[in-house]
Amino acid sequence: MSALGELGSLRGKKTAGQKRDNLAGYLFLAPWLLGLFLITIGPMLASLYLSFTDYNLIQAPKWIGLDNFTRMLSDERLHNSLRVTFTYVFVSVPLQLAIALLLAVVLDRGVRGMAFYRSVFYLPSLLGSSVAIAILWRQVFGTTGLLNQLLDLVGIHGKGWISDPSTALGTLVVLNVWTFGSPMVIFLAGLRQIPSMYYEAASVDGAGTLRRFFSITLPLLTPIIFFNLVLQIIHAFQAFTQAFVVSGGSGGPSDSTMFFTLYLYDRGFGNFDMGYASAMAWFLLVIIGIFTAANFLLSKYWVFYDD
Amino acid sequence: MRLHIPRVATALALATTLLAASACGGDSGGPGGSSDDAGGKVTLRFTWWGSDTRTKLTQQVIDAYQKDHPNVTIKGEFGEWSGYWDKLATTVAANDAPDIIQMDEKYLREYADRGALLDLKKAQGLDTGKFEPDTLSAGEFDGGLYGLNAGINSFAVVANPAVFKAAGVAIPDDTTWTWDDFARISAEISTKLNGKGWGTGALGTNEAGLNLWARQNGESLWTKDGKLGVSPEKTTDFFKYVLKLRDMKAIPSAEFTSQDMNAALDQSAMATGKLAMSFIWSNQLLAFSQASGQQLKLLRIPSTDGKAADNGSYYKGSMFWSISSRSKHQKEAADFVNYLANNPAAGNVLLAERGVPPNTEIRTAVTPKLKPADAASAKFIQDIGKELGDPSPAPPVGGGQVEKIIQRYTTEVLFGRQAPDAAAKAFLDEVNGELK
Amino acid sequence: MTTETLRTTVAARRTGVVTWARVRPLVIHVVLAASALVMLYPVIWMVVSSLRPGNEIFRDPGILVKDLRIDNYRVGWNALTEPFTRYLLNSAVVVLGSIFGNLVSCSMAAYAFARLEFVGKKFWFAIMLLSIMLPIHVVIVPQYILFSHAGWINTFLPLIVPKLLATDAFFVFLMVQFIRGIPRELDEAARIDGCGRGSIFLRVILPLMVPALATTTIFTFIWTWNDFFSQLIYLTDPHMYTVPVALRGFVDSTSSSSWGSMFAMSVVSLVPVFLAFLFGQRFLIKGIATTGIK
């Protein structure tokens, strides 16, 4: 039997009938359940309650029913922030994942020096969102920044990438893609887990690099691709730090990098309108929830589990 | 799928959190709050924003105070501006606010109007007798004093003599100049520097510019009763002037300006020697001088009629001392604030770190010890003392965001995305919408 | 050398011509080296900036400068109310506690979700994912109130205890995906050998998910080390400040900042995370796979 055939037969196996897992299941889940009820759920429900109130952080919340939600319908800055966020999600997530996957596959070789590259490529993600990085972005993407100096050398006259409303969001996408380190590391770990017997068998079958990638690597990596997809979408919808750092918290220029979460933060902490911010947060939760649910439904068609 | 939600646990968690969330104003002090230690010792929490220089100096004052008051322990908490406000809001919400709070005009009424700050007029042992009269009003409203001025500030033009020299332009006489002079001189510098620098940074990157513009025209950004006091016409004129500066190339490009709005002080165009002039607060002179490596100079804000006394200048509190209304040790807190404001020992350490001292005696005592740039801003504050207009009311609740809002509309105008009148209307509408 | 490169090299030698297969590693190296430069630039810039007087960093940016000094490190180390060692130690405590918590609790929860059939599994799984969909900014205030009632403010507990209780759903989900990639036959074999759920988890699953555990360790280290917001909110006393909170103590957006010290201490704080990554990534390569050969 060829390796690929073997793969196909594995797919069909499913061990069923484990009825006596209830106790074990809840025992293993105990720390998480404890955390859920002691730490997570309370504040979540509190924010749900606050979303129906007028709450300025200093005085007690006042119940105002659905007012916060109806206000969202006519809040144009909010609509703009949704546009910005959706653009960001749809452009930056696929780009970042594609690059992370490509580099993970390239770096996942026993070739000498790969450990060095792995570390170097992860560096931007190590830097986090420190103050130093904020300064650096301006140094690189500013009107007289490094990028424009380089462009000048080849005769292109650059612009203020992060200060022009038409390019600021694009620059943020680039910055995000640049920190592909986290999904890359997860892909690397996933590649690591693919049993090498498949590759050996495929080599014996005479399958080429591309064929091996598409018929072994890709299918066996789908659970990890799926994980990265789900989580990166959630993170992208909650994108905050980069825009906050680069725009100095303003979401500027002209609200062009005013992400939904940044606007929510601005309302909650800047404008002392935590009730409205909570309503926005729950609205975001519904959007993310829909996308995640859709991801899970669709995963049946393309994600392959070994169990 | 069967749902097994342990309802009791959920309800409990919810109830606890909600009760806590709505308990503000009720019983005070979490464990992180101030507390009585054994033996009648009092612990006060004192929070400020600022860099390590300020932290070092402030800690020295705390140490000195503790030496004189062995029964009082003061825990200093330092932080950086934006995180500072998130933390303050959170601790106030949880009834766990520090006792002594370094406050900014932006958020003063936000906290005071909602009862989070103590009326310092009622605080025992706080003496404001030696304060320059005009300096108290900034923290005063509704008959109470909620923030004690910690340093005097004034909006001003800052000039870089080196850039003026490079452009071959003389620094103008700031006691007689008008907005037209300002635009003309700036444009001339830009032309002479030919892309290597510009005459001035844009007006409208800060609400103080609009406030002065309004005050010169008989209006004011805010009124005493907490409303917007500037008309659409004057705001339109203001944006028109900003546009005029752009068209005359007195200011850098829209992109450049929009980038400069949110740059760190040291990274800004003024600090890196690309501008001959810019608008700053007078107590920033030292920071800008250090950053640019030049001895910068403060100039008065131009006026409409060429009379400095009509330029609408006022003393602003660079920052304030406030005391939490929920502090358990208001008397001790007031005593410490009194020490910060009136004690020569404290004054000699702090010097002009938070702005020119409003206590006239302290100011006289420390002036000879100031660094040249701080001495220059102290002299500037002294000089304009005779030309001041009425005190400018603090922004009302919801007004703290106005800086970001005006930056946004100035950007719209500079990029040509909105005409001045449309921007003025939208700006005023939005600010009105924020007020509560 | 891997069997693959060995084979191609042998093939190339045999034919005696420069083939694509032979050039390819070189091309890959050149491309990688070029992109590595782009990735390295910020770090080089940070290091260089940390060696210059603070006010020169902005007037004359770029990285090609002479006259580098280490004064910033000396000054920055003691510029705040505590020596920087204190902040590094505080961060280390929080990071180690978080790593321990995440490794233990998340792997347990993940095992339950991935391998055990119990009533309400899908429901709890959905709840778990929901719990990471709310932005922190709206739950931080209720959470602060909760912890303040527990008397945990200004301790490391609000930063560590949640990790001990697997509130980091990211890692639970990550481990679920990895466990589901482990062939179930291995569980079955162990079960036939008489292993219970607990020992299958300890003896079969955990050793096979080393890459996932390594990933969790690396990420927990880096994210906790860099996490600013919750550490800022929960730690009030400068004795308790962690590195990211302390680093911001050098900066004031409205006045003078000590950029030199800030860059120097940023570089210092980068060393532990970089070492953590260097060390941790070895576990990503070693791998286990089912046959062990690579």
From TrEMBL, chain A:
InterPro entries named in the record: ABC_transporter_permease, MetI-like, MetI-like_sf
Ranges where the ABC transmembrane type-1 domain occurs: 82-295
Mode of membrane association: Multi-pass membrane protein
SUPFAM superfamilies per the UniProt record, alphabetical: MalF N-terminal region-like, MetI-like
Key word Lyase present: no
Keywords in alphabetical order: Cell membrane, Membrane, Transmembrane, Transmembrane helix, Transport
Top-level taxon in the UniProt lineage: Bacteria
Cellular localization per UniProt: Cell membrane
Pfam families for the chain: BPD_transp_1
PANTHER family: ABC TRANSPORTER PERMEASE PROTEIN, ABC TRANSPORTER PERMEASE PROTEIN YESP-RELATED
Protein name listed in UniProt: Carbohydrate ABC transporter membrane protein 1 (CUT1 family)
Organism expressing this protein natively: Kribbella pratensis
TrEMBL record, chain B:
Keyword Signal attached: yes
PROSITE patterns according to UniProt: PROKAR_LIPOPROTEIN
Keywords: Signal
Domain of life, per lineage: Bacteria
Cited InterPro entries: Bact_solute-bd_prot1 (IPR050490), SBP (IPR006059)
Signal peptide: 1-20
Protein's UniProt name: Carbohydrate ABC transporter substrate-binding protein (CUT1 family)
TrEMBL record, chain C:
CDD domains to which the protein is assigned, alphabetical: TM_PBP2
Transmembrane stretches, start-end: 26-48, 87-111, 123-147, 159-179, 200-225, 259-279
InterPro entries: MetI-like, MetI-like_sf
A Pfam short name: BPD_transp_1
Location relative to the cell: Cell membrane
Keyword Transmembrane appears in the UniProt entry: yes
GO BP, one annotated term: transmembrane transport
Annotated signal peptide: none
Domain ABC transmembrane type-1: 88-280
Family to which this protein belongs: Belongs to the binding-protein-dependent transport system permease family.
Name of the protein this chain belongs to: Carbohydrate ABC transporter membrane protein 2 (CUT1 family)
Origin species: Kribbella pratensis
